[in-house]
Structure to design on (146 residues):
């Protein structure tokens, strides 16, 4: 397992992301809200975390759902995985959506998402007139029969 050092600025009272087990790929982030936020079924909200990052060039932070929150409550993260670019210095905010059948309340300190640090590969896009042919060709969703 490789490691990268990422600087984190946390507002007063905010917990720095932490891994809950030795083998965890994602570190939990918590809600930092002034008052509880109710998400009715179908609602979405942008939830602050009180966290700001200085991510090294060549890396990103991916924001992902917490499986327990999704399985138990139907609450997940939109725009998944979300990307925090290395040149962004604003607050990490998480777009939560309630896909469940019951209202869900987000309270200050609730674990709402997990973040994964990942290396970034930049592509060099080259314009061409034609592309090589493949067996699949231009077949889209479901075209492989699986």
């Amino acid at each position: 397992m490789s490691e990268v050092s990422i600087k984190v600025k946390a507002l007063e009272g905010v917990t720095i992301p932490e891994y809950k087990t030795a083998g965890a790929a994602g570190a939990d982030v918590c809600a930092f809200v002034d008052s509880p936020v109710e998400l009715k079924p179908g609602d979405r909200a942008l939830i602050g975390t009180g966290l700001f990052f200085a991510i090294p060039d060549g890396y990103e932070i991916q924001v992902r759902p917490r499986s327990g929150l999704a399985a138990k409550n139907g609450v997940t993260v939109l725009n998944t995985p979300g990307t925090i670019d290395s040149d962004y210095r604003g607050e990490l905010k998480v777009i939560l959506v309630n896909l469940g059948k019951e209202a869900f309340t987000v309270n200050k300190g609730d674990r709402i998402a997990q973040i994964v640090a990942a290396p970034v590969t930049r592509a060099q896009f080259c314009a061409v007139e034609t592309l090589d042919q493949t067996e699949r060709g231009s077949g889209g969703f479901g075209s492989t029969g699986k």
Summary: The beta strands are 7-10, 27-30, 37-39, 44-54, 59-64, 75-77, 82-84, 91-98, 104-106, 111-119. The CA atoms of residues 137 and 143 lie 10 Å apart. The mean pLDDT is 95.
